[in-house]
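Board notes (copied after class):
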Amino acid sequence: MNPADPLRSILREAYSPCRNLGVCRQARWDPTAGHVPRGFLGATGRAEDVEVVFVFAEPGFPHDQERYDPNLSPEAMLESVTSYVHSAFAYGKDQFHRNVRWFLDQLYPGTAFDDQLARVWMTEGRLCSIDLELGDARDHTCARHFLTRQIDTLPNATVIAFGGKGQAYLRRLGLPHLRAHAFAPPGCNYKGARPSWEAAIGEVRRRRAIGQPGPGVPQSAPHPGHSRDVVRRTR
């Protein structure tokens, strides 16, 4: 379930390994412990067909059995990572994955998950796990190098940032976006979480109905919710 080019080519750079290792604070490269750039999925068709980009914070700590072969080529590592992430979403590995699946089913009711992935790109503000995921630790190096280029390849997509850290990355980059609560606990359990998701869904549907693609809304637009994307999750 690798993304199509040009996203595929952009992300291969993260497995050479990434040139920003040692520069990004707390970023780890330890494939045998599950620490590799990951957390992205979708855009399996044409770039112009991607309708929505989801931006999260960063991948959580690897699951207990999540391991990667350090001898894999960048292309094979990318394939291994997306295969694991696909499985986590397909089977609802944890609450984060189940909430994302609910959101997708509201956007594309009656559509199989794999078909939904042709219309959506899910990614992270940072592609590596960090040691202090329960907090506000942020480093914008990865977002500048990878996130900006990912979004640039998807000209018709509305960008939605889920959780405070994802929003901060996009705000720092000056990229317009819709804002919503995180899909992971504790943010997803706040009273305003479901309404913020429903508001984002409604805006995507509105743009779809009038044929108006767009990356998001001005940063000064009303905030549909406040949350911190701070829990253990792997994608």
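Comment from the instructor: The CA atoms of residues 59 and 129 lie 5 Å apart. The first helix runs from residue 7 to 12.
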